[in-house]
């Protein structure tokens, strides 16, 4: 069965610093991969997704992620953090041959210090 | 365009009372539908998913049930709520897997507090 592991439940960066949120997946077949953001007391907003096209995926708000099959990773990055980036981030995976179930990682809370 | 509606936004219910949360999708047909729960300070757990009318798959044994009486309607229910049912419930839909536009859209959520 597929699963997703997000390394680090809490990440703190300074404003203007690089943001790196780690996500590794396990899957025996090519996956679809997603990053979502959740602001306090709100639903989920899609940041970006990988659906077997380009391995470097650009999303909203300056975020991007690179699919690395050899490392089974899909890490999320942003060159320069902004205070408004403080939120919970979820990596998720789904498989084409399992009815489209979306399985989430445990989430990483990003704090941005002024 | 496709939209997803979920209600109510917040709900406070006593232990032992019944529950009914409703989710509807507009602008698409034959969507895959999902119910997720997010307990306080934790990740999202898939509770149920449905690939068609009357077709419900349960991911974890629990005090809840789901039904899909119409193509674009998904209902989460309980006969008797437990304190542990408290959490943030999210409904989502997706097209069947495949294609570059494949993705999931989430509702705005229902925050349930069982007291």
Low-pLDDT segments, ≥5 res of chain B: none
Radius of gyration of chain B: 14 Å
Approximately what portion of the residues of chain A adopt beta-strand conformation?
A: over 45%
> What order do the SSEs of chain B take from the amino end to the carboxyl end, as H and E?
EEEEEEEEEEE
User: What is the helix tally of chain A?
Assistant: 0
- What gyration radius of chain A follows from the Cα positions, in whole Å? 14 Å
Main sheet specs of chain B: 7 strands, mixed
* Percentage of residues in helical conformation of chain A: under 10%
List how many beta strands of chain B DSSP finds.
Answer: 11
Contiguous helical run count of chain B: 0
**Category from helices, strands and their pairing of chain A:** mainly beta
Instruction: Give the number of DSSP strands of chain A.
Output: 11
Shape of chain A: globular
- Ends distance of chain B: 38 Å
Can you give the helix content of chain B as a percent range? under 10%
Salient structural properties:
heterodimer, A: 114 residues, mainly beta, six-stranded mixed sheet, five-stranded antiparallel sheet, B: 115 residues, seven-stranded mixed sheet, four-stranded antiparallel sheet, 57% strand, globular
Which helices and strands appear, and what pairs or packs with what?
The complex is a heterodimer of chains A (114) and B (115).
Chain A (H helix, E strand, L loop, with lengths): L2 E5 L2 E5 L4 E8 L4 E8 L5 E7 L5 E3 L5 E5 L4 E6 L8 E9 L7 E2 L3 E6 L1
Parallel strand pairs in A: 2-11
Antiparallel strand pairs in A: 1-3, 3-8, 4-5, 4-9, 6-7, 7-8, 9-10, 9-11
Chain B lengths: L2 E5 L2 E4 L5 E8 L5 E7 L5 E9 L2 E4 L6 E6 L2 E6 L8 E8 L9 E3 L3 E5 L1
Parallel strand pairs in B: 2-11
Antiparallel strand pairs in B: 1-3, 3-8, 4-5, 4-9, 5-6, 7-8, 9-10, 9-11
